[in-house]
Amino acid sequence: MKIWPSYFAAYGSIVALEVVAAASREDLSALSRIGRRTLVNSIFVQNYFVPLQWPHSWTIAIEEHFYLLLPLLLLAMTATSKGRPESAMRGVPIVGAAVAILVLGLRLATPAQGALTGSLYYRTHYRVDALMFGVVLGYLGHHCPSMFARLARHRQLLLLLAASALFVPLAPVRLIHTWGFTLLYLGLGGLVVLAASRPDFGLEGPRPLRWSARALALLGVYSYTIYLGHSALEWLRREVIERLPSPPPPWLDQIAFLALSVVAGVALSHAVERPFLRLRERLVPSRRRATPGPVPMPPGESSLGTDPMDARATA
User: What would be one Gene Ontology cellular-component term for the protein (predicted)?
Assistant: First the structure.
């Protein structure tokens, strides 16, 4: 309900436009290519095909594979713990560490040409460690709050990891696609821990800080549909530019593309995403509407706010 409706609406729009364009040219080979690509993207295996079939959607394919495998993994863990879910969940950090080591080992063991062909970048079994790390953080935050608080206490280290992650794109390709991916999810995970420990950050203080925090939070609300919108507009943009007598200045092209991506993302969210989320809430009501309880903080530091607006702003 969160991912599929907006995904198929955005991708379906691209397919419809491409079919109309190919049919107007009576290009049967193009229609055949569109059909094959549509099948690949509809079952979320596009990240294993080269060249990529709708390039920006490889991340969604990885997410869908993970969302399929994670419940199976948790069910298997529950089965081995004699049906006691609480006991099984205690193994999540161990499994997370095992996945991190295994996936990093796979990346290191892959020949260097894997980085050049993109296989290390796009394929699920080379990237799933980042999603599993998020699961581990979620487990610690909900089930081991004291341990999560001790982790959040090391703010300088978490900030250093986050800052280091920003320099990963400057490294050689082979390093990016091996240790760099690990540093990226550790650094961004550190930001998640810091945000969870201070959900009120930016909601008080100087007005520019408050405005910046709320603008970033609003961008986060629409981030998924903006991502889809920019993917759809990329195809439309290419088609339009090819038909212009002369291309627009690069700065104008980039500004217009960014602005239209945001507009398309907001429109897609209100037209498709939010109605389906309301439908989901009616069909499968949330078991707990309240925000999670505060994470214990070290003495002398501010505790988490309980205002739902704080939690939404952080999200």
Answer: membrane
